[in-house]
Fold each of these.
Amino acid sequence: MKFSTTVPLPCVGHAELFFTADGERGPAVQARAEAARALCARCPIAAECRQLGRETYSLGMWGGEDEDQRQQHQPRRSNYGGGRRPGECGTPSTYKRHLKRGEHCDECRQANTDYVRQKDRERRARNGTSRLAIAA
Ligand code: SF4
Ligand SMILES: [Zn+2]
């Protein structure tokens, strides 16, 4: 999906508001999420953005919707685990377990690749790149 808009998006330059910071807890999470939602609330492409977040199982706030809220639209999937039980194949952590044991597992390798790509997108977002770049 590609967004096109002629007005600047409210989140550009505020990427740090859209992701949970390391060690962030309780009221700090709420305050940051509220600030992000306020930006999304006046965004012209909020509906498309929200949908993209759901389709890509993304981290962070998309179209005013956080990870927990998105989860309700993907009842059988978690962000990285695909709804798996702990220890089941198909997650970055099981990939690392395979690595330690010298095992080969395509499913886990793919899950890890997806995870690394997602992390890279987040990192680029934090570095001030437009959310459009994430969506592109
Ligand atoms: S995160 Fe999405 S909805 Fe929110 S301001 Fe940015 S582009 Fe708009
Ligand atoms: Zn595996």
Amino acid sequence: MPKVTGLRCRECGAEYETTLQNTCYECFGPLEVVYDWEYIADHTSKERIQSGPNSIYRYIDFLPVEGKTLVDLGAGFNKLHKLENLGKTLGLKNLYAMDDSVNPTNSFKDRVTSVAVTKALEFGVTAVGCASTGNLAASVSAHAAKAGLPAYIFIPEGIEKGKIVQSLVYGANIIEVEGTYDDANRLATEIADFHPDWGFVNINVRPYYTEGSKTLAFEVAEQLDWTSPDHVVVPMASGALLCAIHRGFNEFAKIGLIDPPDDMKVSGMQPSGCNPIVKAVKEDMEIEPIRKPHTIAHSLAIGNPADGYYAKRIIKNTGGYAEDPTDEEIVNAIKLLASTEGIFTEPAGGVTLAGFLRLVEKGLIEEDETVVIYLTGNGLKTQDAVLDHLPDPVKIKPLISDFEKKVAIKT
Ligand SMILES: Cc1ncc(COP(=O)(O)O)c(C=O)c1O
Ligand SMILES: [Zn+2]
């Protein structure tokens, strides 16, 4: 595959062949995919992208898969909404949201999973797996079903029922580990070592897996008429998504599809109950793992974020911000978005919007600034988060008089 030349350690620069491996043998640093940018520049173009499929695979020139057999349920090509109503309320003229809750399993994870399972098949794995905070579980289960592979999915205790049901229905082996996400991830890492012919998407397939999220930058740039926004606001768990979005805009610029995003701020948001990266940014310190996360935003509850160091560096270097809203702010933001813009997001989206609202409150957002908020998961999966904060339906007798008395008079 001429577009990919191998893997490289992000810490010491050691180079490796394209294999199922995520850690450097020299220094234990994480590995990343190395591309031949001259080759890609010669082979891709706006026209080629625009005539591609209506999915993440319109950007296949930037993805580390050969693509002879794609495990593709149709992730991507989602709408960048202009938030006119919310923008007006906040006094902002160019507020946008990328709604990634409408992917095949209703989160952005379908982007990374489709790439990872495709790559795992190219390596000839006999099973796939992952450690998950909920959304990845459903996404890997669905893509494994499509690929005809068994799946082993490790989740911590306490994940929302909707996400567990969604994962089980695809026929995967769902293993609930007594403990936190970090406990589940540790066990899954040991099992991945024990079964080297299995592909754990966010463990030994991780360098390829994270590449799928770059398409969230590409889609925004394409929908903003081949420009980058002034500011992107991203939810963080491991921090991988934030790094990939930043990388995506820079890769488009590298081959001249957009101008260099030199002034683009990248902000990252976490819930107050699991905020290791935000704390490190705000207090300018090393990342200290959170032992026992406690938040309604279960999908962001990673206490020991694998890409936290890199996410912190991007936030700092781009002049972005980090905020950690409370559960109450998260619920209010979910309701605000739904009632002003008709988009029902899960708590991760609530975290992102609530964090952004803090920035607006602090006067850090310009009226004309083009801001893109990433909404990465669907509220229908996490109904318990808002159920107790909504009014009951109005109950009436099947009579027009009762309707007029109890409903119409109030509106
Ligand atoms: C809905 C949602 N948004 C954002 C994230 C954060 O992803 P990352 O671990 O890449 O920071 C997750 C992670 O599970 C998620 O489920
Ligand atoms: Zn190394």
